[in-house]
Amino acid sequence: MGAGMIATIAAAELRLMLRSRLALVGLATLLLLSAIAAITSAVQMSTAAIARADAQAITDAQFKSQPDRHPHRMVHYGTYALRPVGSLAAFDPGVDAFTGTVLFLEGHRQNSATFGAARESSDLVRFGQLTPAFVLQTLAPLLLVFLGFATVARERESGSLRALRAHGASAATILGGKAIALAAVAGIAMLPALIALLWAAARMPGEAAVAALTALAYAAYLLVWVLAIVAGSALARTAQGALVGLIAAWAIIVVLVPRAAAGWAGLAEPLPSRVDTEFAIAADLRTLGDSHNANDPHFAAFKAGVLKQYGVSRVEDLPVNYRGIQAMEGERLTAKLFDEYGARADAIQLGQSARLAAFGLLSPALTVRRASMLAAATDLATHLDFMRQAEAYRFDLVQRLNRLQAEAVSGADDGARSRDPIADRRTRISADFWRSMPEFAFVQRSPARRAEAMLPPLGILILWLAAAAVLFGFGIRRVGSDAA
């Protein structure tokens, strides 16, 4: 009897929604936006993936096709590293627009990633980019508010709650039926996004588990809204009061808290600008040592150590090219400094991200956003992994070239090449060496690791579900007392 009554109430509520032109237009609009978001995002990310892969192949080919050259020329010629598109980036592009995706790798410098829409921004929570994730995070709850604010309040105002009780429907049955009807609408609203996830999982079977977890996270998120909306309608005295209260809740949870949290995280742990960092690195480099200054104390001591190691008294008697050895030491010092500053910046950004994640206790929108970015490998940690791997590759490549200068170029020719054309030609080593250099390949976190990283936000969503269920219980008690 109870299950049948719940189904009857749910069916009646759905019929009422379908008879409302406003509800139909709203649902149709959301489905259209979601479908457009899924298609355009998939096309954009597919195009971006092809473009980045082609650009990486072209830049690798250009590096390897260089003619016979002095190795240090190749150090300054440099190459590019491009971050591949995330596994489920078509669903949630994450921080791509903020962080940049292309990095120029050269000797003596550590550059910033470029080609990001808001490269210098630390506001990692954006509002307005039309993607399947954005539609579900922002627009779907608003639609549910407009469709569900009057589900119970309307019955109270019309006096039909007593009639429902007279037909044997308990307060739990009434609210359960209303919630099922609204949950059915939420399920329909999720369909385009679910299809997009299924499409992505079909193209990349290894991503099926994280795609399923993403769908689960958004289902839990929308269920939180369903329970809260029905409970809000039950607790409000009038339908108008329910609408005002629920819209205010949506604005706070979806707009205000994420924006305020991002702003506060940036103020609590400010990230130094790139210009300030460059000045600080330059100042520290002057204290470490200048490899181009023959009288620099550090490199004077380094030179003495090299001479002692090989048992000679003059640079000219070394079995290797001292200029190459010196270049290797200079790059080691600068790379160490780059790593120190990079580690500080990473710690600050991860600290900001952690503060943002903590605000998930105040906004499930933040929590589900974090879960989907982790699943899609478009989160901040993935970007920082790319930057670290690119820097490690840069250092290895530059040191390989410096070692070639030390071992394959005569020290006498290297010293005379600026005034002796014949010596200059002898310092140009075979282009076969460039072709033997390894290519950059970003190693993305495995689906298993990303699924594991999703567990904390999923746990917070479970807490939100529990809180919504408690609120739903209060709504049941309120309806029970009204109909008594």
From TrEMBL:
Coiled-coil stretches noted in the UniProt entry, renumbered to this chain: none
Keywords of this entry: Membrane, Transmembrane, Transmembrane helix
Pfam families reported in the protein's UniProt record: ABC2_membrane_2, DUF3526
GO molecular function: ABC-type transporter activity
Transmembrane region(s): 134-153, 174-202, 208-231, 243-267, 454-476
GO CC annotations on file: plasma membrane
Highest taxon above the source species: Bacteria
Protein name per Swiss-Prot or TrEMBL: ABC-2 type transport system permease protein
Protein's organism: Polymorphobacter multimanifer
Species classification: Bacteria, Pseudomonadati, Pseudomonadota, Alphaproteobacteria, Sphingomonadales
